[in-house]
Design brief:
Elements lengths: L9 E5 L4 H15 L4 E7 H10 L10 H5 L4 E6 L13 H10 L1 H14 L8 E5 L5 H7 L3 E6 L3 H8 L1 H6 L36 H14 L4 E4 L7 H10 L2 E3 L24 H5 L6 E5 L8 H14 L2 E5 L17 H4 L4 E4 L4 H5 L4 E6 L3 H9 L4 E3 L6 H11 L3 E3 L8 H12 L5 H16 L4 H20 L1
Parallel strand pairs: 1-2, 1-4, 2-3, 4-5, 5-6, 6-7, 8-9, 8-11, 9-10, 11-12, 12-13
Helix pairs in contact: 7-10, 12-17
Bound molecules: uridine-5'-diphosphate-glucose.
């Protein structure tokens, strides 16, 4: 009989092909490999081509080669997402989403079948899919694999999704006229306002909403869910989730040691701005970025830019070339770059962690993507919150109302330049409690990762649980 201790798990990891998902998946791969797992990491061919182009890799280079050399068993594979490489996935997002629902699964199925037939050593025992895929349970069942779902957002958001029936019963789902209510009936969530629910519970695009809830339905069938969060940050919510399904908080899953060279997962070329930052005084620079995905309106960008001008702060502003749906690039107020020359930089992409961890950076105006929030806490940089969609609305509540490590720019209304300047001032001039609180919150994250910390213990517990499940399947 095989003993649990002798099992060497081989997990296939498949992220959603978006920057905010590839990043935590990559670091999860390294975490698990350093615990003795064999990992097969699967990128779509299109993602691989973008990474290779952004980082001047050769087509057949393995982005994990440095990790492999240091003894981690991380194998790398590329599969088609079902669309030709020339297809513009971003401009045709709805079509792409339909493809991810119906066609991608066939490519994954084909890949796993061939992998299993090739009899790798050790044999594949588990699949860790992004909770934003719709097919994890089907594939796991077909190949008798342990089905692990990786949730890349806070536990609070998953809990809300798991309780949409309650929201519907109380007429708080979709468009309604009860925005003044406080919702206090979701298990594990003491109180949340309707406007702080993820946009998929409010007024998001119906096709996107349908996709998200199809994913959630599938995630509920997983043997185990692992979350990029920390027990102490969301303890009551996590306890409530654990009543429904094995859930392990193992975060933060992001680079935490900046002295060590780490794998780059950028899909866009990232210039290093350290020299520019070195010429700025400590604690004087505001970093502004809206992540890799959301679109903003031209009006919002103009008001934010005007707010920056009024505040007179030094800054790095990331404006992706596709930040507007129209793709228009000439979007800053006339004379903005001349007026801010020397004190400001506008860039299309950067290495965010290199900026956040620089001593000159004091504040982060963010769209509240979950990775950005964790990275900002890790670097002890308080936030000015400008959530746009999805989980970001709920993430803002956690940052501003619950943990008090940031201020609000606005809650999905029109933003005004004076309010932008005022809130930048609060964060940059230390005139609120967020600096003190973020030091404490960073400690929570750091402790969680220590040998006796909750995330380390949860990770070990997850591995034991998984090995038991592998044994049961053999
Ligand atoms: O110039 C930049 C801007 C961003 N980043 C990195 O890109 C990632 C962005 O992730 P995130 O902050 O989570 O934002 P999104 O790209 O918008 O992520 C999507 O995925 C997240 C995780 O599921 C969700 O929380 C978000 O709402 C969703 O939009 C982070 O690791 C950043 O460090 C860079 O390296 N350079």
């Amino acid at each position: 009989m095989e003993l649990k201790e002798h099992i060497q798990p081989h997990a296939v990891l498949i992220p959603v092909p978006l920057q905010g998902h590839i990043n935590p998946f990559t670091h999860l791969a390294m975490k698990l490999a350093s615990k003795g797992f064999t990992i097969t990491f699967v990128n779509t061919e299109s993602t691989h081509q973008r990474i290779a182009k952004a980082q001047s890799l050769k087509d057949d280079d393995n982005p994990f080669s440095h990790e492999e050399e240091s003894g981690l068993d991380i194998r790398y594979a590329r599969i088609s997402d079902g669309f030709p490489l020339s297809f513009d996935r971003r401009a045709n997002a709805s079509q792409f989403m339909i493809g991810l629902t119906h066609v991608f699964q066939a490519h994954v199925d084909d890949f796993i079948e061939n992998l299993v037939l090739s009899k790798p050593n050790p044999p594949v025992s588990c699949i860790i899919t992004d909770s934003f895929h719709v097919w994890g349970s089907t594939i796991a069942k077909k190949y008798n694999l342990v089905n692990v779902s990786f949730w890349t957002e806070p536990a609070t958001v998953l809990t809300v999704f798991y309780n949409t029936d309650l929201l519907k019963r109380n007429s708080h789902f979709g468009r309604h006229d009860k925005y003044d209510d406080t919702i206090s009936y979701i298990p594990g969530i003491q109180a949340i306002k309707p406007e702080d629910l993820p946009s998929y519970c409010q007024d998001a695009d119906p096709n996107e909403t349908k996709y998200v809830f199809k994913c959630i339905e599938d995630a509920q069938k997983a043997d185990i869910v692992i979350g990029n969060t920390v027990q102490e940050l969301e303890s009551s919510t996590i306890l409530a989730l654990q009543e429904q399904q094995p859930f392990y908080a193992i975060g933060p899953i992001c680079p935490t040691n900046f002295t060590k060279k780490t794998i780059s997962t950028n899909l866009l070329p990232a210039t290093d701005y350290t020299n520019w930052l070195n010429n700025k005084q400590d604690g004087t620079v505001l970093y502004i970025s809206f992540g890799s995905l959301v679109n903003l309106s031209k009006q919002d960008i103009l008001e934010i830019a005007q707010g920056i001008l009024i505040s007179k702060v030094s800054f790095i502003l990331v404006l992706r070339h596709n930040i507007l749906v129209s793709g228009e690039r000439n979007i800053l107020p006339l004379g903005f770059e001349e007026e801010t020359a020397g004190r400001g930089l506008v860039v299309p992409w950067c290495s965010q962690l290199a900026i956040l961890s620089h001593p000159s950076v004091r504040g982060f105006l963010t769209h509240c993507g979950w990775n950005s929030i964790l990275e900002s806490i890790w670097c002890k940089v308080p936030m000015v919150c400008f959530p746009v969609s999805g989980d970001q609305l709920t993430n803002r509540k956690l940052v501003v109302d619950d943990w008090r490590i940031g201020v609000n720019l606005c809650t999905r209304g029109l933003i005004r330049r004076e309010v932008v300047a005022e809130n930048i001032g609060k964060i940059m001039n230390n005139s609120d409690e967020s600096r003190e609180n973020i030091d404490k919150t960073k400690m929570i994250l750091q402790n969680a990762l220590s040998d006796e910390g909750s995330s380390e213990k949860n990770l070990n517990q997850f591995i034991q649980d998984m090995k038991n499940k592998i044994l049961q399947k053999n």
